Amino acid sequence: MFKLTSLNLNGIRSATSKGLHDWVAAERPDCICVQEIKAQAADMAGRFEELAGLAGHFHFAEKKGYSGVGIYTRHPPSDVVTGFGPAEFDAEGRYVELRFDTPTRKLSLISAYFPSGSSGEERQQAKYRFLDAIHPHLMRLKAEREFILCGDINIAHQQIDLKNWRGNQKNSGFLPEERAWMTKLLDNNAPDGGMVDVYRQLQPTTTDACYTWWSNRGQAYANNVGWRLDYILRQKTHDNWVCPNLVFTPTAAFPRSVKPKGIASNVKRQQRGFGVRRMGMSWMKTWHCRTLGSPLSRARTQPKGHWLPS
Q1: Is 239 exposed, middle or buried (0-12, 13-18, 19+ CB in 10 A)?
Q2: What is the pLDDT of residues 224-269, one digit of tens each?
Q3: 304 is a domain residue
Q4: How many Cα atoms are found within 13 Å in the side-chain-facing hemisphere of 255?
Q5: Which domain holds residue 206?
Q6: Angle, to 10 degrees, between the axis of helix 176-185 and the axis of helix 121-144?
Q7: CA dihedral 235, 238, 239, 241 (to 10 degrees)
Q8: What is the mean pLDDT of residues 18-41?
Q9: Among candidate residues 84, 36, 79, the one with its CA nearest the CA of residue 61
Q10: How far out from the chain centre does Cα 115 lie?
């Protein structure tokens, strides 16, 4: 069984002081993609290079205390790629890709943190430039290798992905241009699409239970006035990777400063005192599963030490 988890840390130093290590040790993912590390290499050295036995690989922002992404893994990658090309965004530490290539296949895991445009028009225009740059990059990657992208995309794609969709149609994160970008990426009938939103494949209609971010203003968390901004995306060709056991892992030990991702419909939210803003999101793949909704049968025999999903 292969278990992939994605988590927005909102600062690794704060997160580790509030139970992150114990949570990862308990959940035991094979790989965990993290966003918003908010640290530099010197801050990580000797402290956060490993997490619960997982080795970390990172892309740091040049600006201190800002952005930054990483992937912790139990399995050594064949290559590590930091950044995807544009100097403007590579300086902000928004993309790290681990490659797990074998003689017969090429597979990448990506942790990405897309810009937010909520602070003003300047950052919104930067967000559009980022979207314009990363889409062709992902399409080139799709033509060359298999990949899974985990991350904070900062876009609520559909009306069911946020509470107050009517009142947010002119706000960053739910603008028509941003939503159209997601629609294009997820269009399985178009050559410049072909990606699958794993959560929506398994939970196509949930709304109140799907949110992964709540504003600090007012009583947004207490009233569950949230947005779904965080995703696990895979290629359409990998239907046999997804099983009905996409799981929700509550992280009530985390105070407000941590933003784990929440994705399940059958788990109650924590009490407001915990201040959890995002819950842990895991994608589990077992060798027994062939297609979405298929019975757990016909186990496949893998060579010793072979862990990659097939």
Answers
A1: middle
A2: 999 999 999 998 766 656 554 444 443 333 433 333 343 332 333 3
A3: no
A4: 8
A5: 2-285
A6: 10
A7: -120
A8: 92
A9: 36
A10: 14
- Kindly compute the dihedral angle of the four CA atoms of residues 202, 175, 147, 109, in this order, to the nearest 10 degrees: -100
Catalytic residue positions, numbered: 152
Question: In this predicted model, what pLDDT tens digit does every residue of 60-95 receive, in sequence order?
Answer: 999 999 999 999 999 999 999 999 999 999 999 999
Rounded to whole angstroms, how far apart are CA atoms 147 and 109?
6
Which domain CATH number covers 81? 3.60.10.10
Cα-Cα-Cα-Cα dihedral sign, residues 142, 24, 265, 274: negative
User: How far is C-alpha 198 from the chain's CA centre?
Assistant: 11
Answer yes or no: is 212 within a domain: yes
290 in a structural domain: no
> What value, to the nearest 5°, has the Cα angle with vertex 150 and ends 288 and 281?
65
293 located within any domain: no
CB-based contact 265:210 (threshold 8 Å): yes
Amino acid (1-letter code) at residue 130: F
The C-alpha atoms of residue 309 and residue 3 are separated, in whole angstroms, by 10
Total number of domains in the chain: 1
pTM for this model (two decimals): 0.83
